[in-house]
Automatic annotation (TrEMBL):
Residues 6-307 form the Inosine/uridine-preferring nucleoside hydrolase domain. Belongs to the IUNH family. The lineage of its organism: Eukaryota, Viridiplantae, Chlorophyta, core chlorophytes, Trebouxiophyceae. The keyword Hydrolase applies. One of its GO terms (cellular component) is cytosol. GO terms for biological process: purine nucleoside catabolic process. Coiled coil: none annotated. PANTHER family: INOSINE-URIDINE PREFERRING NUCLEOSIDE HYDROLASE, URIDINE NUCLEOSIDASE. Pfam families: IU_nuc_hydro. It comes from the Eukaryota. This is Inosine/uridine-preferring nucleoside hydrolase domain-containing protein.
C-alpha cells in the first residue's frame, strides 16, 4: 500500500517531538507538511521548533506552515505550558535552532490545498488546539469529503482533564474550534486522556533511548524536564506519551478500542473544554444539541504495553 499522506498540526513540545520524529522514521506515512499552532509554546516558537525537527530528521524538504495565533473567538492562548515542556519547548535544553523560513500562506490554506490535490488520501494528525483545522473547514465547506481522516489528540470523557478536572489541554485551547471540527467531520478519530493516561514510558526506558538511532539521545535529553513535571504533578517515574499515542492511531488504529458517538464541547464556565459524548444508548425524548452530530470515533481502550513498545522502537530507529 502507498504510504499515508500525513499533515502534522503541532505545537512542539516534548511529546510532539516524539510523535514527529517517530513519524519521520515510519515507512507507513509520508509526512507532506507540518503546520504550527499555539499550545505548549506560542505559535511562532512552534513554527521554529517544527523547522528544527525537520532539519534534525534530515527532511528540510518538508514544508512548515505557520498557523493561527489566536482562537476562533480571537483570544490569545491563556496559558503556555512552559512548566511542562520548558520555555523553549525542548525541555530547556536550548538546542541549536535551524535557520529557514516557514512556507508561505496559512496553515488552513495549506490543509485545504493538500486535500484538494490528493482527495481521499490526506490524514491530518492534530496535536494542538483545533483552530487551524476549523479555519480550513471554513475555507472549504467540502473539506470533510476530501480528507481521509483527522486524528485528534484531545478530549477527556471518563477521566479528569489535565488543565483542570473537566478539560484536556488541546480542546481547552479552543473549544469553539473543537465544536466546529467534531460537528463537521464524521471521519474524525479522537485519542484523548482516557487512553493516553494509560500509555506511560518509564524513566528507565527514557534513559535507554540515549545512543539509539538518529534521535535517541536528543529525545532522552529533552524529556528530562518533561519527566520532572510528571514527578511533581503525578508522582510517577514515567511520562505520558500523548502525541505519539495519537500518531500510533494513524498507523495502527487496531491498538485501540473505539466507540462512536456525537461529541459536544462545553465552551463557557468552569467546565469549559469538557468533551461529552452521546453514547447512543437511548432514544431521546425532545431535542438536544447532540442530535444531528456525526458519530465520531472515540478511543476508550488501548493495548498500552504494545503501543509504548511500538513508539519507543519508532523513535529510536
Amino acid at each position: 500500500m502507498a504510504p499515508i499522506k500525513l499533515i502534522i498540526d503541532t505545537d512542539p513540545g516534548v511529546d510532539d517531538s516524539m510523535a514527529i520524529l517517530a513519524a519521520f522514521n515510519s515507512p507507513e506515512v509520508e509526512v507532506i507538511g507540518l503546520t504550527s499552532m499555539y499550545g505548549n509554546v506560542p505559535t511562532r516558537m512552534a513554527t521554529r521548533n517544527a523547522i528544527t525537527l525537520c532539519h534534525l530528521a534530515g527532511r528540510q524538504d518538508v514544508p512548515v506552515v505557520e498557523g493561527a495565533h489566536k482562537s476562533l473567538r480571537g483570544a490569545a492562548k491563556e496559558r503556555i505550558a512552559d512548566f511542562v515542556h520548558g520555555t523553549d519547548g525542548f525541555g530547556n535544553t536550548a538546542p541549536q535552532l535551524a535557520a529557514g523560513d516557514p512556507a508561505p500562506g496559512s496553515a488552513a490554506e495549506f490543509i485545504v490545498r493538500m486535500a484538494s490535490q490528493h482527495p481521499g488520501e490526506v490524514v491530518v494528525l492534530a496535536l494542538a488546539a483545533l483552530t487551524n483545522v476549523a479555519l480550513a473547514l471554513h475555507l472549504d465547506p467540502c473539506l470533510a469529503e476530501k480528507l481521509a481522516r483527522v486524528v485528534v489528540l484531545g478530549g477527556a470523557f471518563y477521566c479528569n482533564g489535565n488543565v483542570n478536572p473537566a478539560a484536556e489541554a488541546n480542546v481547552f485551547g479552543d473549544p469553539e474550534a473543537a465544536n466546529v471540527v467534531f460537528s463537521r467531520l464524521p471521519n474524525c478519530w479522537l485519542v484523548g486522556l482516557d487512553v493516553t493516561h494509560k500509555c506511560c514510558m518509564s524513566a528507565g526506558a527514557i534513559e535507554g533511548m540515549a545512543g539509539r538511532g538518529r534521535h535517541g539521545t536528543f529525545l532522552r535529553d529533552i524529556t528530562q524536564f518533561y519527566l520532572g513535571y510528571h514527578r511533581q504533578a503525578y508522582k510517577m517515574e514515567a511520562v505520558y506519551v500523548h502525541d505519539a499515542a495519537a500518531f500510533a492511531a494513524v498507523v495502527d488504529p487496531g491498538l485501540f478500542e473505539w466507540q462512536q458517538g456525537g461529541v459536544l464541547v462545553v465552551t463557557e464556565g468552569p467546565a469549559k473544554g469538557r468533551t461529552i459524548r452521546d453514547e447512543g444508548k437511548k432514544e431521546w425524548v425532545g431535542s438536544n444539541d447532540w442530535q444531528g452530530l456525526p458519530p465520531v470515533q472515540v478511543a476508550l481502550g488501548v493495548d498500552s504495553q504494545r503501543l509504548v513498545a511500538w513508539v519507543l522502537e519508532r523513535m529510536t530507529r
